[in-house]
Amino acid sequence: MFNIGMPELIVVFIVALIVFGPKRLPDIGRQLGKAVRSFKQATMDLKDALDQEPPEEIKKEVREKLGYTDENKTKTPG
């Protein structure tokens, strides 16, 4: 996805170590891990919600608002 190799990863780690210091780096890594995990969980929940079939009362409400009836479904053109 990002095409980051080992040399680039080492450079990023060294810069982060210089900027944040050795005491704060584990906390920042932990917070970043929690944020990524939370984002993944939210995306999975959204995907599951979109994959589910809508409840029948919602379908009925949409049909009523669109003026769709079972008669429209069974009529044949002609």
Structural class by SSE content: mainly alpha
Count of domain modules = 1
Continuous helix count: 4
Largest sheet: none
Distance between the termini: 54 Å
β content, as a range?
A: under 5%
* Quaternary organisation: single chain
Relative helix content:
over 70%
Low-confidence stretches: none
Q: What is the residue-averaged pLDDT?
A: 85
Shape by Cα distribution: rod-shaped
Would you list the SSEs in sequence order as H and E? HHHH
- Number of β-strand runs: 0
Rg (CA only): 26 Å
Provide structural commentary.
With 78 residues, the chain is mainly alpha-helical. It has one domain. 74% of the residues lie in helices and 0% in strands. The mean pLDDT is 85.
